[in-house]
Amino acid sequence: MIVAERKAISDILQMIEGAGRVLVVGCGTCVTVCLAGGEKEVAVCASLLRLQNQGEDRDLTVAEATIERQCEWEFARELDELVPDCDAIVSLACGAGVQTLAAQFEDTPVFPGLNTQFIGIPEEQGVWTEHCLACGECVLDKTGGICPIARCAKTILNGPCGGSQDGKCEINPETDCAWQLIFDRLKRLGRLHMLEEIEPPKNWSHSSDGGPRKVKREDMIL
Amino acid sequence: MTERPTGHTNTNSNLERVLAAGEFAVCGELGPPRSADAEVIADHARHFHGYVDAVNITDNQTAIVRMSSIAAGALLREVGLEPVIQMTCRDRNRLAQQADLLGAAAMGLNTLLCLSGDHQVFGDEDTARNVYDIDSMHLLQMVRKMRDDRQFMSGTDLEGAEPRFFVGAAANPFADPFEFRVVRLAKKVAAGAEFIQTQAVYDVDRFARWMEAARDMGLHEKVSIMAGLVPPKSAGALRYMKNNVSGMRIPEELIRRMSGAQDPKEEGIQITVEIIQQVREIEGVRGVHIMPIMWESALPEIVSRAGLTPRPDLS
Question: Could you say which DSSP state residue A213 is in?
Answer without folding.
Answer: -
